[in-house]
Amino acid sequence: DGGITQSPKYLFRKEGQNVTLSCEQNLNHDAMYWYRQDPGQGLRLIYYSQIVNDFQKGDIAEGYSVSREKKESFPLTVTSAQKNPTAFYLCASSIGTGPLFGNQPQHFGDGTRLSIL
Amino acid sequence: AQTVTQSQPEMSVQEAETVTLSCTYDTSENNYYLFWYKQPPSRQMILVIRQEAYKQQNATENRFSVNFQKAAKSFSLKISDSQLGDTAMYFCALGSAGKSTFGDGTTLTVKP
């Protein structure tokens, strides 16, 4: 079955450490997204990518970095510059780029919960 | 900039009854799509229903239907014959060329 796989499910970060969250999709989707979800709150967009080797900052990109070297993969690195990284992180994908981007429904992974040690 | 507002942080409904979740939005785009997503306690977000702004007919998916009022920029979700499995957080979202925006969500509890 096609879908989005996020790993790990739980992740702990030490002070000053960078950590990378994995997101892989086999849906052949062009667009991929990273969201942060804090308890009782909505989704805030961190980064998104419409095509390989291209990505754009979302609303809360500071302290995060991404890469898109392959269509299937969109890893998110939470850097030591992100002072409040404890949250639930969701990866999503959708078909369509250009004028269709944003018009198609998004498919979500199961999420990664990041905590500080 | 586009915004999505869900004014009801929490709601509850008795099993088998009907409940309506509210959503208002703002955008300068003429061509856009509206979505309702469901996030159950297990956390995987799934699409419930989708509405294209240029279609006047309200979208329906089984027990789920929307009331789309384009002039008022309102997009409410009606759940009929509520079931215990409908307990979840519901997000309204607006998608347009190059942008996707989510509301803060409404937590719905279906009571037996």
The biggest beta sheet of chain B, please?
6 strands, mixed
Total number of helical segments of chain A? 0
* Largest interface summary: A-B, 25 and 25 residues
**Share of helix among residues of chain B?**
under 10%
Q: What's the β-strand tally of chain B?
A: 12
Q: Which whole number gives the mean pLDDT of chain B?
A: 93
State the shape of chain B: globular
What is this structure, in a nutshell?
The complex is a heterodimer of chains A (117) and B (112). By secondary structure, chain A is an all-beta fold.
Structure characteristics:
heterodimer; A: 117 residues; mainly beta; four-stranded antiparallel beta sheet; 0% helix; globular; B: 112 residues; six-stranded mixed beta sheet
Describe this structure in words.
The complex is a heterodimer of chains A (117) and B (112). Chain A has strands spanning 4-7, 10-13, 19-25, 31-37, 43-51, 54-57, 64-66, 76-78, 87-94, 107-108, 112-116. Chain A is mainly beta. In chain A, the strands form two sheets. In chain A, strands 2, 4, 5, 6, 9, 10 and 11 form a seven-stranded mixed β-sheet that branches. A four-stranded antiparallel β-sheet of chain A has the order 1-3-8-7, with no helix packed on it. In chain A, strand 5 and strand 6 (54-57) form a beta hairpin. The model of chain A has no long low-confidence stretch (mean pLDDT 91). Chain B has 112 residues and is mainly beta. Chain B contains no helices and twelve strands. Chain B has strands at residues 3-5, 10-14, 19-21, 24-26, 32-39, 46-52, 60-61, 64-69, 74-79, 88-96, 99-102, 106-111. In chain B, the strands form three sheets. In chain B, strands 2, 5, 6, 10, 11 and 12 form a six-stranded mixed β-sheet that branches. A four-stranded antiparallel β-sheet of chain B has the order 3-9-8-7, with no helix packed on it. In chain B, 37% of the residues are buried. The chains are: A mainly beta (117), B mainly beta (112). The interface between A and B is medium-sized, with 25 and 25 residues.
